[in-house]
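Q: Here's a chain of 130 amino acids. Please give me its 3D structure as tokens.
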Amino acid sequence: QVQLVESGGGSVQVGDSLTLACVASRRTFTTAIMAWFRQAPGLGREFVAAVRRIGGTGTNTFYSDTVDKGRFTISADNGANTIYLQMNDLKPEDTAVYYCAARGPSETANVFAQGQYNHWGQGTQVTVSA
């Protein structure tokens, strides 16, 4: 069983930046695709970004059409079994619990769909105040 642990959340002001991290307890085929989702109060969980490992060091990245990818950047440190979400120019609507997710390799998986992931972290709260 792979454990995912998120960190880096907090309470910030509008326009601030945060970097979230998600560490996987081990790197296996079950963490070939890792992603960030978020859930705002009263709303469903939505996809933010994903990264797919290619070979030993390569990655492909994917971003939600509804999340401003110009402000968010996902990256991976394969050696550390860690992914990051750099969030800049934060806005109140970014307030949510941010979850890390992982799944095994697949060329056809819909990386945008939460049902495709079988490992989840506990989440880290991000609160943005005006």
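Q: Can you summarize the key feature?
A: The two ends are 40 Å apart (CA to CA).
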